[in-house]
Amino acid sequence: QPYLLNTTNISAHPKTAERLLDIVMAEISYATDVLKVKLIAWCSDAGGDSAKMRRLLDQKLPHLIAVDCWAHQVNLVVGDIFKIKGSFIETIDNALEVVKWFNNHSRALGILRDIQCQLHEQPHSLILPVLTRWTSHFLS
């Protein structure tokens, strides 16, 4: 079961591997000491500083599995599948055009939401995937 732990705003600081490791070690302590969770793996961004941080983490805690961005890996696998199955690409392209059309026609989008509410369903958001934002692919 994956858990999102605390978030740390480091936007005003250099994102060095050492700084990231300090943050990760604090989160691991929080997870094990406060939440009483036994960690078996740590997932982080796929960037260079995060990759170095994972190497440092592996040296410090060799029993822990340190992997890069799962969403990125899944995206690459799905992309490979779509290359094999050409019909998927056409279907996805058509679905994206439908999402774009609704998002550019607020009246039609409003009618769609009203119908969803009338059917006692929570309205769904029409989200376009963004190439570098892996979660948007999952949500869309």
UniProtKB/TrEMBL annotation:
InterPro entries in UniProt: RNaseH-like_sf
Source species, domain of life: Eukaryota
Protein name (record): DUF659 domain-containing protein
